[in-house]
Design goal:
single chain, 3-stranded antiparallel β-sheet, 7-stranded mixed β-sheet, alpha/beta, 391 residues
């Protein structure tokens, strides 16, 4: 017998990152000394104290049983305490915190937890490609809102039509932003709350890079904005802040109705997360955050080193305020994809093509600040030898 995937699965978008990995692996197979600036995978190890916490928890037979469906109450309390300490945001751990097996799960499952087929949601363009997976799985309609450089890659809600505003039920945002590195302002978040209230649109803020801000500026939590909990939630992951990407642990916080919808769908899809991972997450959130401070300093040095090397060859970056990415313009005569392919072929340097994040990313490539500093200079030297930029 032969089985076909469902029409819903067939409607899923092509996985951009899988295609990028395929190209990079093909180049690596040639034996070339290539420099991978295309990845978004943290390169530093998980801090020792977190590893020790999971080792101890794994040895405890009490953690070998099924998890509680809605997560360890101690982890929900730790998440609430973390938000109180870091952002002065008060949360009820029972009704305003949902434990996730990584924030991607929450971002993809939320549309079919809150929307009905045919409903409309708004996504940023460019944006994290996996947001589109939730659109396809929930069989909802999509409205894109452009992030433009002249507006510091913040959406202008005035660009949406009146029909879009009336029909939309959900809006996704992400700051510090992947792929641009842009950061949100308090005025923008206040405007977002006003917009959401006026149009009855739920807001989902993907705060994956919430710990990573540059030049002494700490990124703002959406929930710090007055009225934010009335209109939305925030997704937080431990992947970036604590180098726990492979551990798959995160949480959502905010509006109780939206949190309940997440918890309800997860009651049917999962039995929460391995208890030992949750114990390690508690250790991370309750720590003095010194390892996070050190990590942010590392990314700051890398950003500054890469910017300096890029400017040496006449390649001027968009000034990133957070995340661990640099958003770089494509030289005249190239598309994002042809430029990325040229760098891989002629310079053995991999970057992520901007159009992989949506049509709004055309004209840029994304560089990951996830290699040792000396390699940034080498990568830019190789690119400079192609004589694509005027100094």
């Amino acid at each position: 017998m032969k089985f076909e995937a469902s029409k819903v699965l067939q409607s899923l978008p092509k996985q951009f990152f899988a295609n990028l990995v395929r190209k990079v692996n093909a180049k690596a197979a040639t034996g070339a000394d290539f420099i991978n600036l295309g990845q978004g995978n943290p390169d530093q190890p998980t801090p020792d104290f977190i590893v020790q916490a999971i080792q101890q928890a794994t040895a405890d037979p009490a953690n070998h049983k099924y998890s509680l469906f809605r997560g360890d109450p101690a982890l929900k309390q730790a998440a609430a305490d973390f938000y109180q300490r870091e952002y002065n945001v008060t949360l009820d751990p029972e009704t305003e915190v949902a434990i996730l097996g990584g924030s991607k799960i929450g971002l993809v499952e939320l549309p079919f937890a809150l929307l009905n087929p045919g409903d409309t949601m708004i996504l940023p363009d460019p944006g994290y490609p996996d947001y589109l997976s939730g659109v396809a799985l929930a069989q909802v309609k999509l409205e894109l809102i452009k992030l433009r450089e002249q507006n510091h890659f913040l959406p202008d809600y005035n660009e949406l039509s009146e029909d879009a505003k009336q029909q939309a039920k959900l809006l996704y945002l992400n700051y510090p932003n992947n792929p641009t590195g842009a950061v949100a302002t308090s005025d923008f978040f206040k405007n977002t709350v006003t917009f959401a209230q006026a149009n009855q649109i739920g807001v989902v803020h993907d705060f994956a890079y919430g710990a990573i801000g540059f030049d002494g500026h700490k990124p703002l939590s959406f929930l710090q904005t007055p009225g934010a909990k009335d209109v939305g939630i925030e997704m937080y992951t431990l992947s970036k802040s604590y180098n726990m990407a492979g551990w798959r642990i995160g949480f959502a916080v905010g509006n109780a109705d939206m949190i309940e919808a997440l918890n309800l769908i997860q009651d049917h899809l999962f039995v929460s997360v391995f208890p030992a991972i949750q114990k390690a997450a508690i250790a991370a959130l309750q720590s003095d955050q010194a390892t996070v401070t050190d990590l942010v300093s590392l990314y700051q040095r890398r950003r500054d080193d890469f910017y300096a090397a890029a400017r040496q060859i006449g390649w001027e970056p968009y000034p990133s305020g957070g995340s661990f990415y640099a958003w770089m313009p494509v030289p005249e005569g190239f598309t994002s994809e042809t430029f990325a392919d040229l760098l891989l072929e002629k310079a053995a340097v991999a970057v992520a093509s901007g159009n992989g994040f949506g049509s709004g990313g055309e004209g840029f490539v994304r560089v990951g600040l996830l290699i040792d500093e000396p390699r940034f200079s080498e990568a830019c030297q190789r690119i400079g030898q192609l004589h694509l930029f005027s100094r």
